[in-house]
Amino acid sequence: MQQTTVEVAHQAFSHFTHGLATGEWNPFLDMLSEDFTFWFPVGSYHGLNVGKHRAREFFEYASEAFKPGLSVTLERVTSSETTVVFEFRDEGWLRGEPYKNRIAVSFDVRGNQICAYREYFGSDGKSN
């Protein structure tokens, strides 16, 4: 039985937040289509990135930057027939400095896979 767009996206988001918390990205990466693309707003991965190999590099890079991991608080989910947007706050450490942020990630769903990801964020400033 085919899962709905929202069910697939929620499963992927669960794997995504697990990756942010632990650095274990394989369950999330396993849900990506072979032609997966992602868009990131800044840094070395700024703009459009293509391929699961590029996604693996990106998420492993994120895990290195955010050791020991990020905690996530989901605030809102919005969906259409093919896209689900998750708005959340995350908190942890960025290269040893306190980190808090507000994020929106958009997952495009095709079948039981995520075929595209876009990320948008704005800082909540440093933790006290």
Helical fraction equals 25-40%
- State the order of secondary-structure elements, H for helix, E for strand: HHEEHEEEE
Largest sheet: 6 strands, mixed
Strand fraction equals over 45%
Distance between the termini: 48 Å
Physical arrangement of strands within the biggest beta sheet? 2-1-6-5-4-3
Total strands: 6
Mean pLDDT: 94
Structural class by secondary-structure content: alpha+beta
> Count of helices?
3
Task: Briefly note the CATH topology name.
Answer: Nuclear Transport Factor 2, Chain: A
Radius of gyration: 14 Å
Q: Which class in CATH terms? A: Alpha Beta
Cα shape: globular
CATH architecture grouping: Roll
Oligomer: single chain
Number of individual domains: 1
Unreliable stretches covering 5 or more consecutive residues: none
Protein name: Nuclear transport factor 2 family protein
Pfam families: SnoaL_2
Would you kindly provide a written description of the structure presented here, covering whatever features stand out?
- This is Nuclear transport factor 2 family protein.
- It comes from Symplocastrum torsivum CPER-KK1.
- The chain is an alpha+beta fold.
- It has a single domain (about 5-125), classed as Nuclear Transport Factor 2, Chain: A, CATH 3.10.450.50.
- Helices cover about 30% and strands about 45% of the residues.
- The protein is built from 3 helices and 6 strands, in the order ααββαββββ.
- The chain has a 6-stranded mixed beta sheet with strand order 2-1-6-5-4-3.
- A hairpin with a 6-residue loop joins strand 1 (about 30-40) and strand 2 (about 45-50).
- The N and C termini lie far apart (about 50 Å).
- The model has no long low-confidence stretch (mean pLDDT about 95).
